[in-house]
Amino acid sequence: MMARVEDVVIVGAGIAGLATAVALKRAGVEALVLEKSDGLRATGAALTLFSNAWCALDALGVSQHLTSLYAPIKKGYVTDIDTGEIQEVSLAASNGNDPVRPRSVNRKALLKALADELPPNSIRFASKLTAIETQEHEGSSISVIHMGDGTIIKAKILIGCDGIHSVVARWLGLAEPVHSGRWAVRGLAVFPEGHRLDYNVQQYVGLNRRAGFVPLNDKEIYWFFGTSPAKGTDLGDEPEVIRQEVIENYAKDLPPIYLDIVQHSDLSTLSWAPLMFRYPWNVVFGNLGKQNITVAGDAMHPMTPDLGQGGCLALEDAVVLGRYIGTSFVQNGRLVPKEIDSAIGKYVEERRWRVALLTAGSYLSGWAQKLGSGWVRKFLRDTIFYRFIFTKLVKLSHYDCGKLDF
C-alpha cells in the first residue's frame, strides 16, 4: 500500500490538537489531525480558562469568538460543608490588576471555535492510530503511522495530542499516568428560563469531598463533584444513575441550590471518571520529544483539575510549539529535518518545568481542599493553603506564552 506523506500529523482533535493545528496554520504549515472518534469530543462538559489561556487564544486569533458568549467570573467562595463557614478566595493577581478575568466556557464551543479556524478536511475522524515506527529518509527521521483501517501515513513531524492514554507518549517511553485516588462527576446544568445567579465560583469542601459550580452564561451552569469513593465503587456510565447517586447519596447534605443545579443537568454531558496525573518528576526527567516526535496537552502533562489548568496549559503548549515549528518553516521556506529536531527540543525544554510545577500544584490543591473540619485540618486548609499557597498557585496562571508573529 502506498503511504501518504504529510508535513505534520497531529493525533487527537482535543484542545491541544486543534489549537496546535491552528497555530501551525498561522505560519503556513498544513497539519492533518487524526481523531479516533466520529466527531469532536467534549468530555468534561466545560472548563475554566484563566488569563494564560486567554493570552494563548488571543495569539491563535479565536478569543473573540468566546468572550462574547461567556461572562467573566467575579469572585470565588469556599464553604466548609461541616461548619458552614464561608471564605472568599481570590482568582486574580494579588495587586488586583489582572486585565483578563477567568471565564468558564462550554468545552464544545471551545473546540468548535478552534476547528472553525482550520481548512476543510483538516480533521479526519474515525481514524485510530495503532502503531508508530520511524524510518530514515535522506539522512533524517520520518514517522510511519499505522492506522486501524490499514492506512499508512508518513509524517515529517508527529505530534501526540491523544490524551491521558496517549499512544505517542507510550512510544516515547513516558511513564503511564497514575490514579490520584479520587473520582469526579462533571456536568452541565441548563436553565431555559435563566438561572439568575451571579457569576461567582461556589465551592463546598469537606473530608474526602469537594463540590462546586460556576455559571457559564445566563442559562448554563457547570458543576462538579469529587470524592475518594470506597474501594469497588463504580457509578458506571448511565447518566441518570450518576445524577441520582450525587443527589441522593454523595451530595445530599449540600445546599439546595447545588442539588437543584445537579437536577437540571443535561444528561448527555454527565461523566464519572478517575482523576489521573503523571508524576511531575516523570515530566521533568521523561522523554517528551525525540527527533521529529513530541507530545502536548494531556499526552504530556495529565493533571488533576484542582487548579483548572489542564486546558489552559494545552493552549499554551500549542502556541509555543507552533511558534518554534512555524519560525523554522518561515525562515527556511520549508520543514528542514535538522531544524525540526531543534525546534521540538526547544519546545520541550521551555514547557518541561512549567507543566511539572503546575501538575504538582494541582495535586497539592486537591489534597488540601479535601481535608476535613478538625482544627488541624482546617488550619492547614483555610489558613496555610488558601491564604498563602493557593494565592501563589493562582499567580502561575498569570502567564503570557507569547505571540505568533510570523
From TrEMBL:
InterPro entries: FAD-bd, FAD/NAD-bd_sf, MOase. One of its GO terms (molecular function) is monooxygenase activity. PANTHER family: FAD/NAD(P)-BINDING OXIDOREDUCTASE FAMILY PROTEIN (PTHR45934), OS04G0423100 PROTEIN (PTHR45934:SF1). Gene3D superfamilies: FAD/NAD(P)-binding domain. Belongs to the 3-hydroxybenzoate 6-hydroxylase family. This is FAD-binding domain-containing protein. It comes from Malus baccata. It holds the Pfam family FAD_binding_3. Residues 7-327 form the FAD-binding domain. Keywords: Monooxygenase, Oxidoreductase.
